[in-house]
Amino acid sequence: MKGAQTLLTYKKSDDSMDIKTFNISSYNNIVKSKLAFNVWDTSAESSGGIFRLFVKLKVEEMSVNQVWQVGPSVSDGFPAKHDFASRSLNSPKISSPFSNSVRK
Fold first, then answer.
1. What share of residues in the chain are helix, strand, coil (percent, to 5)?
2. Please, are residues 7 and 21 in contact by the beta-carbon 8 Å criterion?
3. Is the per-residue pLDDT at 72 higher than 60?
């Protein structure tokens, strides 16, 4: 989603999992980059078509806008643009790292 700081996990051609970070400033030019917050201890796994992403984040804000999306594909380590259907457009949430609450 344009404007998102992205953690992307995908399965490579050798069946291993990879994790990359992107700052998506436009849909035309997606560039791998560091995020505005620290990310470490990254790992991912795949089982039965489900991908699981594990990361540690240092978020210093009181709330975080989060977007969970499933993209159509990854080509040479870069995400393809997802569709603009309502399930994608309605995915943003705001969560607090200091509580278990998540709200639209």
1. 5, 45, 50
2. yes
3. yes
